[in-house]
Amino acid sequence: MTNPTAVISKNLCLYLLEKPSLFPCVEVPKNAINFIRIHKEKLSVKGDFSFPCSLDLWKNCCKETGHKLRLTAFDMFKEVEEDICNNERQKFLKIASRWAIPIDRIRIDNERCFLYLKRHTVMLMLLQRVLNNDKNEECYGKLKKNPKQKVWLSGMKLAEQQHEELSFCRAKLVENILLRVLEYSQWTVVTEEYAEEARKGNIGEVLMLNVASAAGKVTVNPFVIPPSRLSYATIRCGIVIDPITGKLTKLKTSEYLSCRSNDMCLMAMHKYGVRIKDDKSFSALMSRLGAAAVTVDLMEVRHSSPVQIIRSGKGSTRGAAFILYNSARLESLLRKFEEKVENGEYGKLPPIESIDFALLDEDEEWQLVFNYIFAFPNLIESCLDQIRNGVCAIHTIVRFLGDFASLFSVYYRRIRILIHEKRDHLMPCVYARIYLVKAIREILNRTLSFLDIEPVQFM
């Protein structure tokens, strides 16, 4: 399994740059990868990726690794030499159209080159990967890692009273989420005994991760001594503060959970039109929503920054309730489709290979695929990119979910996904959209699972 974003970046750099002859195995310069911009809005106009055309910029980024510019490749940017430019552009497109993630066309404007992917080819490929139930295949987003990349996450040991302090609760949440992301991303998580052997220099290198709260004392591990192969990083979590006092909150974890459960109940009733029921299943749902709200509240800003508790239900419009409301929408859509199939109103969903994804030509449809399905593996990678420096980007998971739900909400309101009566000429489009919805649900649910939040069937 590969990261689609990384595939594009690497292929592009390999096309523009020549590896040093003395060191052909050297990696592509990281600065060069950083030149490649991934777009999120107005994709029909801006394209999906872009990068600068300046030779000087690319030359500077190659100094450390010894790469050289493939000058003939850069001729496609020389618009003054029209024939050479056109020939090189055609040559590039011929090659790039055969990449694993194929390029359809390019556009040059203001010294930037804009790349447009072959949308319907990419849609089919991604949806097949996401919905693949073959146990021999890796789950989408589980990227192959160097087996020598090992980590030991030393668990936080909290005193009984600390479990009720929100700042320590936040740090524990970070630790639990981090463990799930590490395991999904296929780092090798090892035991304390294994790490001890690495410290003695008996086996390969292990990264020891320690999560701590800024509300407590930082303890320094006493045995960093040669020939240790155990490297250390501490992920320090900011405190939870009260927005009224601006100081460390005195609200207990159990009180905050109860408060947010009540907020979710009121929001479900007033904003989403949910009828209050006096039964255990409804109470259990509200408790789950409350716990989800607490997780989103505490994780929505960078782990090292302080975070405010939510008072009187005044939270983000893209918070837990909104995310889970759209989770319920997805489930409801797919239930209705299955009911129509069972009732004979629709035919069975055809195999995905027979679906014409060229029918999905709405802007939101490509945005959902490119910004969230295509980008999902990169989200996992970026969460852990700076982990050796004691920095993780768990907050981007919450941002990803909020943006994902917002875009799907726009799409759901604007596009009729199911039709009331079966019309043969419209069914191919219905089937294509059902596959899209299934893939969206899969990515949403996998992302929620990192936060230990269950999807919602009804709301």
Automatic annotation (TrEMBL):
In terms of superkingdom, the source organism counts as Eukaryota
Short name of any one Pfam family annotated for the protein: DALR_1
Record GO biological process: arginyl-tRNA aminoacylation; tRNA C3-cytosine methylation
The DALR anticodon binding domain sits at: 323-459
> Sorted alphabetically, which SUPFAM superfamilies does this protein's record hold?
Anticodon-binding domain of a subclass of class I aminoacyl-tRNA synthetases
Recorded GO MF terms: arginine-tRNA ligase activity; ATP binding; tRNA binding
What InterPro entries does this protein map onto? Answer: DALR_anticod-bd, DALRD3, tRNAsynth_Ia_anticodon-bd
Record's PANTHER family? DALR ANTICODON-BINDING DOMAIN-CONTAINING PROTEIN 3, DALRD3 PROTEIN
Q: What is this protein called?
A: DALR anticodon-binding domain-containing protein 3
Q: Which organism is it from?
A: Ceratitis capitata (Mediterranean fruit fly)
